[in-house]
Amino acid sequence: MLPPVETQREALRRAAFEAPYRYRILFVGRFAQGSTDVVASLKRALEALGHRVFHVDTDRHGRVLDISSGAAGGYVPIYLDVPALRPMLDRFRPQVVVTGAGGIVVSADAAHEVRERGAVLVGVTLSDPDVQSSIIDHVTRFDYHTTNSALALQRYQQAGVTNTFLLPFGIDRDFVLRSVAPDPSLRADVICLGHAPGRVDRHEVMVALARRFHVRVYGTGWPIAGSGPVAGDKLLQAAREGTFHVNFPATRAGFTNVKCGVFESVGAGAVLCTAEFDEMARLFEYGAEIVAYRSAEDLGDTIAALLADPDAIERIRRRAFRRLVTEHLYEHRWLNLFREIKADAESEQPAVGAERAAEVREILAAGNDPARTVLVSGYFGARNRGDDLLLEAVTRGIEAHVPDAHVVVAAADAGAVEAEHGLPAFDRLDPYTSDTWAARATAVVLGPGGLWHDYEIQRARGVAGIVTGATSALAHLVQLPTMTVAHGGEFHVFGMGVGPLIDHAARATVRLAGRLADSVVVRDTASRELLEGIDGWPGAVEQAPDIAYALRLPDLEAPGTSRGHLAVNVRPWKFEDVGIDRIRDALATIAGDRALDIVGVPMRPADKPALEVLFDGLDIPGQVSVLPAGATLDAVVDTLGTAAAVLSMRLHANLLAHRLGRAAVGLAYDPKIAEHFAELGRHDYVLPLSVSTTTLTKVLDSAIEEAELSAETRRTVAELERSATAAVETLGARLSAASVRVAAAGNIPPAPPQPSVLLPTGWAAADLVDLAAGGFVTGNADDPQREVPVAKSLQPTRGLQVGLADSAPRRGDYVAWRLDLPTRPGEGLRVELLLEQRYKERSNRRGRIAYEVLVDGNPLFRQDVAVWKPRNTVWIARIAHGDRVRIEVRIVALRDCEDWNWGPAAATRIEAVRRLPWAGGESLVWGASSPMAGFDRRGRASGSSRPNRTSAVVRWMRRLARQVVGR
């Protein structure tokens, strides 16, 4: 007899999976069900084989997909927008680009660009044969394409499609090995994992079994008490607590197909029960490894007999598990697929043609060393130009000196880092994902640009914040390094600033960081002295200049030539202390006397409105303008490097100006500004915030007169550049000497603990609508040609969140979630939606973003996101006039919004939707719990075919109650 499942599981944990060639793979797709999703399993299997994978999450990067067709549910076309991927393609330089299902296809131009960049394009379809008719005309634009269905493969071949291979469903090793705590409360004889709205065949079987056995079902639409969706660890717990798993092979379109749940069930150690068909028989042996059934009664009798014979159950479990881990892991699937691709490229009649086959052979012949994962942690992705410069400097330096480095950023905004820097990133506030990366990291680099200081240490609850999950201050900065060291990786502090550092808890936290660190490099003498003055500080502190000195700057078109403008930067913090009028008067005098234009240079988005306030009413002969908040580094360098002089509150605007040979005048809102000028021996050009107009004018005039920096200052700058570059080289040497590490098997991050949607009393799971059945449309009401990116995510226990991805949406931009409910003409239905707005109630922010609810294209109401945050329960009763009723939730920009992260911040969550029959006699009536749902000053509902039935008096009383509570 085979060993027990748990013994086999441990043997699998020790088994080595390694591809003969390791590739850099850009993997585009979303994990609709979180870490247990099929697409997540496919990605993890590639990593387990040693490939270097950059996951482009299309929930995070909605703009990389063109969803204007409205396709959803795996149907096409959803076009991959390759231009939106260019930063990632440029930096990561993938050898293979994989589109991970979801109806993603490519245009001819997109496919051409990917090939020109030296990558093999592989499209993965996971919803065949249901979606085959919609995708078959698109698959030949991939180099290679895969289908999950043997029947679909046969049909592709009959249609003359030769570039498609079978990639059957499976499961990855980490899914099988993931450790979860037992949950006896989920124990059941028989379970079924899957949704069942309208699936009568599923209802009949499971209801019949529930009469004979202890049955649990998981998903929506089940007529069995206690049902509901599960995901993440809860899904794994549920799967492992069920002895028998019932799998239904019928697809929505009526095909019989192997489902991914087959492998999840076997991986959980369960006995799989499914219908008998040939494709399944090729994967598992009926009777010996899985159980076949023809009817609910037949299945019930088989289960009863097996429950009476525990030894028989154990034999089936062990045999099926052995078959799974030796043949049906996704690691096996990928190994086989790459063998088939290479064999095709080497054949006499390759599917991709002889010329392309030669290119494919060359690409796939170039393997890579095992990846040395290096985490760089800092306040990156927040659109701070200074931090962006530091990130570029340190990551470019690591890549130059550690050729096998796979640099991954622990970021404040992971999506922004990936989209703008082309580097893989994760949310450093997510402790579970952080732990996953820490487990595989060779080292973590903390900094550059970070600051160890007293600010907010008490808000983080002191040293306790390290273990209680503080999200700010020093306590947070120690968490990722602690996890990395715990897993065996190294920890390097690099480019850090220190001070003030008086608080006892802050000093204790820094002392711990010093003891964990393999090296500590700070950016100035004062920082070094502060650390060395801490009681019990463990070792030496090295010093290097600001790492921005090491960044290679883009070349100027006309180096050293002024274009007749003054470059100006101010920041909002302490901006009022400077004295707006004093700066404005000085600029007016200088620009008037010297006939200069003025160009504002925002180093962060928040600088732009501060510059606009400063320039408001500035009357000069020349032009006044402000660079876009998202201007490229080239544009910033060009503006600073060709300016007559630079006036700036920001450290790195001054530093860039000096590196470009331009005289800068600093406004010292912080000691680091004065320290920078002192480092260059330019004490006279840094001024306090209280500077008078006369003095500021005089110093600016002197800077303009200087034209170029002195030879002595240029020599000092050059020496700082050499020292910073040497520091980066030393860091690279340390990282190269560290051990390459591979994460232990079973390394899947648990889903962050989140409360499930609290359904109102009386809501039954059987009435819930599957939110994934809806689709998305975007656009601009005023400009049909404008492309509007969408940000969306679906969590089984939290609902669907949707919003505009642009941080500064334009008037008329919208994104809509559309749900088509099948009906019969004359049928009455009641639809209820639970809507939650994320944005805080701030009356001074109204008028930017609103959400609307529409029925069959007709708006019911519009609600400003800034005026009502509590859940809005919307009900719609409708007599259908055709074969469907369309419900739509639309998020729309009411005006051109400031670049204040408006799109993501104003996302709306559709928590749940349920459908009920309705016997009313009117065409359309509706209501909403929010008193702010589209009422004008007279209490009338806007855009409604029938007024909301909440009276004006009740609405007035609700508003009054909220005001009283607010006091």
By oligomeric state, this entry counts as single chain
| Number of structural domains | 5
Categorize the overall geometry: globular
User: What percentage of amino acids are in beta strands?
Assistant: 15-25%
Rg, nearest Å:
31 Å
Helix residue percentage? 25-40%
Secondary structural class:
alpha/beta
CATH class of the largest domain: Mainly Beta
How far do the termini sit from each other? Answer: 73 Å
For the residues shown, what is the average pLDDT? 90
What is the tally of helical segments? 33
CATH superfamily of the largest domain: Galactose-binding domain-like
Number of strands: 39
**Within the CATH hierarchy, at the fold level, what is the topology of the largest domain?**
Jelly Rolls
The low-confidence parts are 935-967
CATH A-level architecture of the largest domain: Sandwich
Largest sheet: 8 strands, parallel
